[in-house]
Design goal:
The structure is a homodimer of 144-residue chains. Chain A has no helices and ten strands. With 144 residues, chain A is mainly beta.
């Protein structure tokens, strides 16, 4: 993982231990193999992607089918976690991590709103994702 | 933590280990001491609440002031994690965990959209939270 620092960036010393743990409950299958290929934002009329739910958690899908919009929480497992102030390539000036939606953050959890097309054998077919193929799934919630 | 099962509910055997870890980066200060007192949904004209950021992470607030709406991710530390199908008190029939917004879920991360009123010494003053006082903070993002 990249540990370089660009001009204006500030890195934290990360804590010695985590405060809580996450279970990965599935993974996101998208057309993008690298971060460079990913769209900046997912589009609700973008390519059809799949959300594969691991066997253990499939009963939790009961009643999901028929909902039009979902919130998908996933873990950006390739992102470093120590930058407090960062200068993404798309920005001229450094920004505080909590003031931008960069994947680089203390807890690299991303959130996408997606359109649900169908559910088949524990697989959700959706549009609106923007992450790399194989990204671990953390949660699915109905959109408000 | 409650381990009872109501009619129609299904519990999972949880995995032996976590797949990733979370750092708690602060805590939410609200007027509600117990879950029974919490509103069902946070209101953007609800009571003023505070988000206290721990010292280590405060530089990450750079540039946040002046934004009107934020997304706040927090960890519902009192919720059990093993229910796949559940029957919340407010519902007649059992629902799959991914089909409802109950705090009980494999990864009990909640998301609120809040209105930012001001930032003072690493403390954000916001309206729109709905969780108990002392809830651990996971992330802050600007709303899209």
């Amino acid at each position: 993982m990249d540990k370089d620092i660009r001009a204006g960036e500030i890195a934290a010393a990360l804590p010695q231990a985590f405060d809580a743990g996450l279970y990965f409950v599935g993974r996101l299958r998208t057309p993008w193999a690298t971060r460079a290929e990913c769209p900046h934002y997912g589009a609700l009329d973008g390519p059809l992607c799949r959300i594969e739910i691991d066997d253990r958690w499939r009963p939790a899908l009961l009643g999901l089918e028929g909902r039009e919009f979902l919130q998908v929480l996933y873990f950006m497992h390739q992102a470093r976690r120590d930058l407090l102030v960062q200068t993404p390539r798309t920005r001229a000036a450094p920004s505080g991590t909590f003031a931008i939606r960069s994947p680089v953050r203390p807890n690299p959890i991303a959130l996408s709103r997606v359109r649900l097309e169908k559910v088949e054998n524990g697989v959700l077919f959706v549009r609106g994702l923007d992450c790399i193929d194989g990204t671990p799934l953390v949660d699915i919630k109905p959109d408000r």
